[in-house]
Amino acid sequence: MINNVEANWPGSVHDSRVFRESTLSATFARGEFDGYLLRDRGYPCQCYLLTPYPDPGPQQHYNLAQCRTRARVEMTIGMLGFRLRVTPERACDIIVACVVLHNIATIRREQCPTLPPNDTDNNPDPPN
């Protein structure tokens, strides 16, 4: 389930600003949400924001895992934005609609579709 979507910022706005002004940020700050968010170094130090260590030393494995996980999420969001060849305002509406449909499918326990192994249009790493 996707619990929160902030799609009110069409165009280019830094994600730390979007988060800072979001209802989710306020919910975390009040201690009403139990969990953590992976963020980059552009975010302030908060007990619920997991950012990379500035001088990793022995924490290099944490930084690597944190970076890889965050990169996957950001790549997915970036691909979604690239695929939506519409105005930024329209993209906001489409993203919210997709989140609603995803949650409905999750509630109904529908299986997540998978890509066919030979679908080279959508598979960035086709087999050689």
Characterise this structure.
The chain contains 4 helices and 2 strands. With 128 residues, it is mainly alpha-helical. It has a domain of 71 residues. The protein has a two-stranded parallel ribbon. The longest helix is centred in the middle third of the chain and has 24 residues. The protein is globular, with a radius of gyration of 17 Å. The relative contact order is 0.12.
Q: What labels describe this entry?
A:
128 residues
SSE succession: HHEEHH
Tally of alpha and pi helices: 4
Q: Based on DSSP secondary structure assignment, what is the total number of beta strands?
A: 2
Largest sheet: 2 strands, parallel
Helix content: 40-55%
CA-based gyration radius: 17 Å
Topology:
Elements: H1 15-20, H2 23-29, E1 37-38, E2 49-50, H3 60-83, H4 88-107
Parallel strand pairs: 1-2
Question: What is this structure, in a nutshell?
Answer:
The protein is mainly alpha-helical. It has helices at 15-20, 23-29, 60-83, 88-107, and strands at residues 37-38, 49-50. The model is unreliable at 119-128 (pLDDT under 50).
